[in-house]
Specification:
single chain, 67 residues, mainly alpha
């Protein structure tokens, strides 16, 4: 079974959780590294989603101006 990709909102929520955990600084080093790595992947995914949203808004705006 394939895992459904996270929505932008789910990714941001998980990023908030990760930031809180990292700020507490109570995890062992290997867990801290794992959380940091997960956070970086989430950030890259959010950036990609934002780019898609931006392109869609531009597309909709240009088609709206034409019609």
């Amino acid at each position: 079974m394939t895992k459904k990709p996270m929505t932008f909102e789910e990714s941001m929520s998980r990023l908030d959780e990760i930031v809180e955990l990292l700020e507490e600084n109570e995890q062992p080093l290997d867990e801290t590294i794992r959380l940091f790595e997960e956070g970086l992947k989430l950030v890259k995914g959010c950036e990609a989603q934002l780019k898609q949203f931006e392109e869609k808004v531009k597309e909709l705006s240009s088609s709206d101006q034409e019609g």
